[in-house]
Amino acid sequence: MAGKRKRYPRSKAVISQALARDQYACRICNSYGMLEVHHIVPLHKGGEDTLENAVTLCKMHHSMITTAQNSKRGQVDPQTGLPYKSVWGWR
Ligand SMILES: [Zn+2]
User: How far apart are CA 29 and CA 20, in angstroms?
Assistant: First the structure.
């Protein structure tokens, strides 16, 4: 609790659980490389560091979704944290 800036520590357990649940593959493209665990509701927007709020993404899709979340609203499905297919043209 020290310092003025609020920090968002992440549970390593949540990361490993999310990876295992998603079978160590990106939820969008099923890539097995460069995986990162993304928070569906960003921690700075009140999201929790829980398995339910975590989704496994490859580095590319993680950055694409993060960009979408930070730009126009409504591009990311709040239920899944993934971009709408109609917007992105993914399967
Ligand atoms: Zn991907």
Answer: 16
